[in-house]
Amino acid sequence: MAINFDNALGVHPMALKFRDQRSELLASNLANADTPNYKARDIDFQSVLQGLQSPKLKLAATQQAHLQPQGVNSGAQLQYRLPSQPSLDGNTVDAEQEQVRYAENALSYQFSLRLLTDKFSGLVTAIRGE
Q: Rounded CA gap, 32 and 39, in Å?
């Protein structure tokens, strides 16, 4: 009997991918904290996970001229962060908040990695028949 890794591992591989993307965005925000007119960006991770867990919807177009919505089947949507205190140079990065978000994301990444490692350990145990 073949193992379906998508079913066995669940959303954890995708969660790692998006956590990795988010860490790059947050690091970019921190690196550009002093860049005039830089707009802080982020990924709404909760909506990404909900999109992965819910069935993919495809809208039916009855005419060729119908527009398909962007991002229905895609994962992460980049969003710009609204600043709590806008700066005079147009930069929306709050360095302290970005550091907190980066640390939280790093912990979540480690947690997701741990869950994935445990899933693989369980699969190895099942394959060995232990």
A: 9
More confident residue, 10 or 87: 87
In the chain, the amino acid numbered 43 is I
- Amino acid of residue 107: L
CA 40 to chain centroid, in Å, comes to: 16
The two structure tokens encoding residue 2: 């073949």
Amino acid symbol at 57: L
- AA letter at 110: Q
Task: Provide the whole-model pTM.
Answer: 0.70
Q: How many CB atoms lie within 10 A of CB 99?
A: 14
Q: How far apart are the first and last CA of the chain?
A: 17
Task: Dig out the tokens for 127 from the structure.
Answer: 């394959």
Nearest to 33 by CA among 99, 119, 78, 80: 99
Can you read off the two tokens belonging to residue 102?
A: 């980066």
